[in-house]
Structures are given as C-alpha cells and as structure tokens.
Amino acid sequence: MSFSESFDPAQIRAALARSRDTGVDEVRAALASGVATLDAAAALISPAAGSMVEEIAALAHRATVERFGLTMQMFAPLYLSNECVCTCTYCGFSMGLDIRRKTLRIDEVAREAQTLGARGFRNILLVSAEHPKHVGVEYVAQCVRETKRRAPYVGLEIAAAEEADYRAYVDAGCDGVVLYQETYDPVVYAEHHLGGPKKRYAWRMDALARASRAGVRHLGVGALLGLGDWRFEALSLLAHARWLERHCWRSQINVSFPRINPAEGGFTPAHPVGVAELVRILCMFRLALPAAGLALSTRESPDLRDRLAPLGITHMSAGSSTEPGGYEHPGEAGEQFELEDRRSPADVASSLRALGYEPVFKDWESMRTPATVAPA
Amino acid sequence: MSDELIIGGRAFGSRLILGTGKFASNEAMSAAVAASETEMVTVAVRRVDLDAPSDPITAHLDRSKYLILANTSGAATADEAVRLARLARSAGLPPWIKVEVIPDPRYLMPDPIETLRACERLVADGFVVLPYIHADPVLAKRLEEAGAAAVMPLAAPIGSGRGLKMAAAIAIIIEQATVPVVVDAGLGVPSHAAAAMEMGADAVLVNTAIATATDSEAMARAFALGVRAGRMAYRAGRAPEYTAASASSPLTGFLAPIGH
Q1: CA-CA distance, B120 to B146, in Å (whole number)?
Q2: B199: how many CB neighbours lie within 10 A of its CB?
Q3: Does the beta carbon of B215 lie under 8 angstroms from any beta carbon of chain A?
Q4: What pLDDT, on the 0 to 100 scale, is given for residue A336?
C-alpha cells in the first residue's frame, strides 16, 4: 500500500486530540520510549510539553551530536527556471503573477554551478518551478549532468515525476530529491493549489517512493509551515518520514519545515508559526527520527539559524539566491520568496565555527559514473 | 619484547586506529589524533576534496606519522566501493582501503554480500583491504579466504557508544581468525576498548566517542591508555573467573606441616 493510501488525517487528528490532556509524566515516558509511536511524538508537541522545552532541547542536542557530531553540511540552491504552469497561492512563481520569467540555458546552468563551486559548494540543489515544456525531463537530466561536472552531490527540487523520469535523473547523476508536500491536510491543499499538475495531492505524496524505487539515495520531505495547523502538519510529516524509512530503507530521509516568507503574491499565512513552535517541531523531529537529516534554509534569520543549529539541524544553505541566474546576474528575474539570511557562505561558515561546528562543504563523491560500470 | 600490530606486512606501534569524522574542527581532529598516539587514521573518501590542491582534512594529517586508511563510506554497493577506492588511490592516497558497504542509512549496517564482492575485486586490484563487517564469524572467514588483510567487526551500531554488544560473536571471530581482528564501531568509553583488547582483539577503531567528547584530545589520550591496558592484560594472561570465592593465600595452608 502506498503512503497516500495508508495516510489518514483523522488518525493524526485523533492522536493530537489525545495529546491535549497529556501530562508531564507522559511526556517523559514518551521521551524514554525513544518517541516510538505517533502518540509519543504528539506528546512532545503537546501543550503540557511546552513547559519542558529546555529539557527536550537538551536531549535533542545530545542526539544530534551522537549521530552527526559537531558538523554542519553546507549546500546551495541553484534555480533553473521560474516559469510555471501551476497556480499556488503562496508562491512567488505562481502562474498568473507578473514577474520576469526565465529558464536558464545549459551554459548558464554551468556558469551558475561554477560560481557556486568557486564559493566552496560541492553540494548543489537544482530548483525549478513546474513547466513541462520549458523544464522537461531531458532538460533537467542535462542540467544534472552539467552540474555534476562541478559538484559531487546534485539534488533536485522540482516537479513531482514518474518513476521512469526519476530513473533518468539518477542515470544523469542525481543523488537526492527534495519534494515538499506543502500541507498534509487535503482540504487546505486544495485551497492553495488552484491549478496545474501540482493539484494532484496523492500523486505528489507518493512521488518520493517512486524516486526511491528509481534509485534516488536521499529523499527530502517537508511541510510549508503556515498553511495548516502546525501540530497537524508536524505529525503528518513525521508519519510520512517514518513510512519512507520503513518502505524505502535504502534511502536516507531528510526533513525540512520551511516557514512561509513574503513572496511576490503578497500571501499572508492563515496559521503563522512562531519561533517557539519551530523549536518544538525541530526538537520533536530530532528525537523521533534520530537518523534523519534536518535542513534549514536562508528563509530564517542569521540569529535564529545560529540558535537552531545545535538543536538538531544538520544541513544549511548559505549565500542563496532564489531567482534563476541569480548568482551571476542578480536582479534580472523574479525570485521565489524573500530571504532573511543574506550573509555570504564564508560568513555563515565562520559563524558556525564560532559556535563550535565544522562546516562541511564536501561530504559526497560521485558514486555512479561510467567509470563505475567499467570492467575491473 | 616488541608487540607490534602487523597488518598487510606493515608494523604499527599503536593498536588504536582513529576515525576523523564528526570533529568540531580539523584542528580538534589533528590534536586528538596526536594525543591518541595512533599510527593509522581512517578518512572517508567522500569527505576528501580530491581535486583541491590542499584538502582540508588530509592537510591536517602528517603522512610520515600516520597511515591514511581511506574508507568507502557512502558506498551502498560493491561497484560504488570499488569506484571510491580507485578514486582515492588515483588521488595519491595509499592503496589501503577500509571497505564500508552500507545500504541502510538508518542503522548503518554493512551489507555482507556486497562487502565480500568488493573485497574480492579490490584484493585482485592490489589493495590492502580491511572490511567493516557485522560480527559474523563465517563472513570473517570468507573474507580471510578472499585475501582481506584484517577484519573489522562492529561492537555495536556505529556511533552508539554502547560497547561490546556483539561480544559472543566477536570472541568466535578472534578465536578463528588468521588475520588481525580490529573491533570497530560502537565503543563508547576507554573501558569498552580495554575489554575488547582483553578478549584478544588485535586493535580497535574509535571515532564518535573521541570526536564528540567534551574534550576530544583528553579522551583520545584516555583511549590510548585503555587500549594499552587491555592489550597488556591480554598478554599477561588473565586469572580464571570463578563463581565461588578464592582466597589469595590458602586458608588451610597451616595443615600441611602437621599432615601425614
């Protein structure tokens, strides 16, 4: 059974309802159990656990150091295109918006990758809006191949795809796929995804399992915080991540919980998520999924990023641009959303060092190239 | 009397091997390596910037003092492990390879089938091969037959610091081995390392327990002492273990003179 078939929002809501009356002792029992069940995870983000944030954060910090040491993986997004056939209420690339549209040529992709390489990055996440014509499978595969010449790790954050398409990306050198469900509430999902292929909630939900079957090694799940109730989104996201851990056991699972930032559409989130809630979500994920990578982007402020680093974050972007071509020629195309952390990669790295963390720019080697299949 | 560890025809004065991951900085890593008095350190090929003229990790390790044992961390198949090993060698690292073939990113358990395949190919390719394995005595023998220079069974899940959870199986591996046995992964404190050496392990490999200690340099020194103590105890020949008390001086010795 696929995740979309097994996922029942009513079960998530029932677990959250039970957790409303959870006491401090039950939260401690949930922690002692290794946060084994959804009820235990719900206890960690329950109202009662609100008074135990420091205690939970200390455990989250310890779990992070045990698993990942005192290191931070650094990556950078490279935007390929902001041309989009989807209408999504919160996104700066949404189809109807009057922004300057651009899809990078392959030589432009190469130059952007080169610029990022010169800044130290060896882990590049190719990002694109959804446009079957301008951003087709062969184009994306070509972009992966081109980027792979400059970075040993290439990830994709693009439209949900078929298994065969993911296989083409893997063959081109794709190491990871990031695909946020945005919201796990099907009603809220329909309210915000008004047109285009992204309307298909269940098809999107099962995309990462298709990617894993195609051989993608790293799967990134996420919820866009602000669209729905934060507790519902966090617990649903955990259920998704755990389903992937069990069914796609060969793939590393990474989790993100981006908060909505102002975008071109002037969108205001119905359920804004504060820093206190963000901290509780982060700590819950670290303790419930000790092996998962947890990523934090430049959507968050420098000060907050420094403070969240020890609580469980393992991956950070830095010096990002969210417009296609934005590293070489900033300001020539529309950006997806506004960034809070505009420090240079070198500044982010030295800030991490001051916190006692080694920023790791290279942590991957191309595992699959023609040399791999050459006879011994 | 000299008590060197011999692996792949090379002698090592220390029986402690260090991993280089998870440290707060490369400076902290090289300080811990020095304090441990090790002569062999393992480095993940995937972490090394093979194109960079001065890679930040290997630049912090004096090659005249330490053998750099490249490892294939990140590989999920024999093909990938072989590729990483060859990349390391062509980048100028020694032809020594710690084979890690780990398809499971969650518990980081090695794949026995792919590990054996990778070892067969890398031995044929001229590498000194040290495979990281689950504590599986039959696999250890199979790897020996395939030409492995040592076997590296795990004590407990990697990074867990839980100690010799696999002691019963490791004891069989040690008893049967004709190549050095390096207990790798899961050792959390120097007493765990000492216990492994007391059992007769030839060496231990430690990373997380040192890298994530509050004072990694002091912890490296403590592990060096633990390994030395355990080895010394093993060579001294332990006294047998009894369930009943046994006095160190005979309680009834006085009877002898009045005996018949």
Answers
A1: 6
A2: 19
A3: no
A4: 82
Whole-model pTM: value is 0.89
Find out whether B69 and B99 touch, Cβ atoms under 8 Å: no
pLDDT mean over A117-125: 95
pLDDT tens digits, B103-135 = 999 999 999 999 999 999 999 999 999 999 999
Residue A24 phi/psi, 5-degree rounding, is -60, -40
Give the chain A residue whose CA is nearest to the CA of B73: A364
> What is the CB neighbour count within 10 angstroms for residue A370?
6
* Beta-carbon pairs below 8 A across chains A and B: 85
- Name chain B contacts of A67, Cβ cutoff 8 Å: 159
Residues of B in contact with A362 (CB under 8 A): 46-49
* Rg (alpha carbons) of chain B, rounded to whole number: 20
Average pLDDT, chain A: 93
The answer to whether residue B22 is catalytic is no
Q: Residue B161 has what pLDDT?
A: 86
Q: Which two tokens stand for residue A89?
A: 């209420």
Residue owning tokens 């100690």: B163
A contacts of B83 (beta carbons < 8 Å): 367, 369, 371-372
Residues in chain B where the model's pLDDT stays below 70: 1, 53-54, 257-260
DSSP 3-state of B9: coil
What is the distance in angstroms between the Cα of B137 and the nearest Cα belonging to chain A? Answer: 25
A68 close contact with B: CB closer than 8 A:
yes
Residue A247 tokens, joined: 């069914």
- pLDDT value, residue A175: 96
Residue B65 carries which DSSP code?
T
**Separation of alpha carbons A297 and A257, rounded Å:** 9
User: Which residues have C-beta within 8 Å of that of residue B111, sequence separation ≥ 6?
Assistant: B76, B77, B101, B102, B103, B104
Residue B137 contacts A, CB cutoff 8 Å: no
Phi, psi of A178 (to 5 degrees): -110, 125
A342-345: long-range pairs with CB below 8 Å, 24+? A342/A298, A343/A302, A343/A318, A343/A319, A344/A119, A344/A318, A344/A319, A345/A74, A345/A76, A345/A119, A345/A120, A345/A121, A345/A318, A345/A319
Query: CB–CB of B147/B128 below 8 Å?
Result: no
Q: Could you give the CA distance from residue A235 to residue A8 in angstroms, rounded to a whole number?
A: 12
d(CA B9, CA B147): 13
CB neighbour list of residue A127: distance below 8 Å, 6 or more residues apart? A77, A78, A79, A80, A157, A158, A322, A336
Q: Which two tokens stand for residue A274?
A: 């504060």
User: Closest by alpha carbon to B181, among B231, B223, B229?
Assistant: B231
Q: Name the residue facing A372 among B45, B83, B159 (closest C-beta).
A: B83
List, as own/partner pairs, every contact residues B10-14 make where C-beta atoms lie below 8 angstroms and the sequence separation is at least 24, other chains included: B10/B67, B12/B39, B12/B40, B12/B67, B12/B203, B13/B37, B13/B39, B14/B38, B14/B39, B14/B40, B14/B224, B14/B227
Per DSSP, the three-state class of B182 is: strand
Residue tagged 């006491």 (tokens): A23
